[in-house]
Amino acid sequence: MTFHLSTSAEIQHALGVRLREQRLAQSLTQRELAQMAGLSLGALRKLESNGQCSLETLIRVAQALGLQEAMDDLFVLKRQSIAQMEQIDAVSRRRRAPRKKTS
Fold it and tell me: What is the value of pTM for the model shown?
């Protein structure tokens, strides 16, 4: 499933399903994964059933499942052309003019 044109609820649900599949592929019970991640069993169940969780919970589960590398590409700036790279570089170098001194 791609996340294009999905609602946030659909994306959350899909992430929960994917994490459940990862857990099952590693032959872990919900209780085992919750303990590994330092979470309550209820928090993990909620994540797997509807994807609702805090960012910290998502990160803990991903780490416990060994999925840190899968998160490396999240929100990485993707530069597609030299012109875009130059524009981004120019914006990052832009500075405010110094304040005028008042006498």
Answer: 0.70
Distance from chain centroid for Cα 45: 19
Sign of CA dihedral 35, 37, 39, 40: negative
The span from the CA of 23 to the CA of 41, in Å, is 14
Task: Write the pLDDT tens digit of every residue in 44-76.
Answer: 999 999 999 999 999 999 999 999 998 888 888
- Measuring CA to CA, which residue among 23, 57, 27, 24 is closest to residue 40? 57
Radius of gyration of the chain from Cα atoms?
21
**Of 22, 61, 65, residue with least CA distance to 43:** 61
